[in-house]
Amino acid sequence: MRPADVVHAAAERIDTGRSYDVIVVGGGINGCALLWEAARQGFSAILLERGDYCAETSANTLKVIHSGIRYLQTLDLKRVWESVAERDALMRLAPHLVRPLSCLTPTSGMMLRSRWAAGLAWLAFDAIRAAQGPGAAAMGRNRILNKAECLRRVPWLANEPGLSGAALWHDAQVVNAERLGLAFVLSAQERGADACNYAEVEKLLVREGRVYGVRVRDVLTGGVASVTGRSVVVAAGASLPGLLATCHGDPAAAPRFVRAANIVTTRRLSDVAVGRASRAEAGEQRLLFAAPWDGRTLIGTWYFPGDCSAHPGGPPCLTRAELSVCLRDIEATFPGGPLCEEEIALVHTGLLPAEHAPGVAAGERLSEKERIFEVRRAGRGTGLIAVVGVKYTTARRVARKALRRVVEHLGDQPGGRPMPEATLHGGDVGTLDTLVQAKTQEYEGTADARTVARLAGLYGSKLDAIMRIAARDARMAETIPGVADSIKAELRYVLENESAWTLCDALVRRTGIGGRARPTAETIAYFADTMTGHFGWNDAVRQANIDAVDRYYERIV
Ligand SMILES: Cc1cc2nc3c(=O)[nH]c(=O)nc-3n(C[C@H](O)[C@H](O)[C@H](O)COP(=O)(O)OP(=O)(O)OC[C@H]3O[C@@H](n4cnc5c(N)ncnc54)[C@H](O)[C@@H]3O)c2cc1C
Predict the structure, then answer these.
(1) Pairing between strand 224-234 and 210-218?
(2) I need a labelling partner for 242 at 20 to 30 A (CA). Which of 144, 153, 223, 477 fits?
(3) Could you read off the pLDDT of 210-233 as tens digits, one per residue?
(4) Which CATH architecture has domain 3-58+178-254+367-410?
């Protein structure tokens, strides 16, 4: 595709001649799930995302799809019920991307962290699971391990004071958070919805006090257009206050946001995820979670007040002092001594909603529950619905709630029954294991087993489309330079099918190659050369894309 075609394609993606039932602003996980839910229920809908889908906070989650165990501590059984249902639903919708994750936390003493307390919690959990009926995902049972069993699984917990055993439970892990968001978008498009990345909403349009559309700028071309609709839903994460200002909506309605961070390390700690109170300081006990992920370990989560970015509009960053806090925690809590620089594969950062909380250290406490509300202006409703999610896990549920508000606002619902949920784009695989087994045999000679397993895990049933590209052109079956478990057909596929416009889109979010660590120079050059050929980039555009990749990895100031 040539640059002129890109301009053309971007302009065409925004259908300004059409009025939608629902305009969704913001393509993080909440906006992506909302688009899908709207399309499923038969609404005409469009999603406008200023960057790439799920490229901001939603890309930087710890990737845990919670089963709500932590809510047992506060006896919030409703949230446990909701979380388990969401975990199961995501595993059903995208079994290739959302996989079981066994987790354990050490038990000690006679109080809240004791084996007895954990045993009671598991009884309550089992009762909730049983009440959810046979449709619930088949996961192992939660168990209490004795000390010997605990140490067999995680030997380095031997230094846990008063260790009596461990509580073992099953969450799930979204192995590629960006691709799950994309799967919602592609599925919605298959059901007639429109979606546009690199489409920044600059202004909410108001007539007689009601929001009736948006003014949108095509970030790729600079073109500006208006899109109108019967309802507008803003799921723009930390940009909500700025967007409210464009329609004089009450800014006080928006929460404040704090930074949250994870460290991805090449150090492998265990085969199960381990939750452990930080041992860095005697006083405040931050709970840290270390989860195995793609041959590495994801550790988090730390929270820091205030905004901080290396580049205007760039991702939130950590200061060196804040990074030191994380590293000190890791050294004190997990084995292997201090992490050296080469062991830090990535630093993930995002912004989470918080509330003013007098008496709390930094004066702010993370919001516990999502908020869905109509934005008011000079004391009157504007029809604009704002969505502030607090968890990646619950995006589908939040989307349904938001849609109910939209229906109230519209006063009608599309005719016909909602389409069944079925599976998301690429999710019609049965189980991942059976898919990998069958496809490894089928494609023997075209790609090695490791490559097939990786592609199946990311693209699900769309693996066949990638392999068809390789079958048509033998060069496409060659390995991507510097990447042992990929073939060139993968990049060709994402460029032709997945709205990947920039080097970061393809390298980091679609293939995930740059999402697990910084790729080698030869890999970046291969991607840049291929995309230059595909889009007809000139030298300046090519270099700008490479510079953007460099900036992607700069999270420390
Ligand atoms: C370090 C960390 C760890 C976490 N761990 C977990 C976890 O393990 N499990 C879990 O369930 N949750 C976790 N979370 C929480 C979860 O990631 C977030 O709640 C969720 O991703 C928020 O999604 P969102 O769609 O609301 O926001 P975002 O992902 O921020 O999406 C908002 C989108 O709106 C777009 N946008 C903004 N302004 C405009 C505009 N003007 N026009 C168009 N688009 C616009 C942005 O580009 C962005 O893509 C974690 C979060 C962090 C930061």
Answers:
(1) antiparallel
(2) 223
(3) 999 999 999 988 889 999 999 999
(4) 3-Layer(bba) Sandwich (3.50)
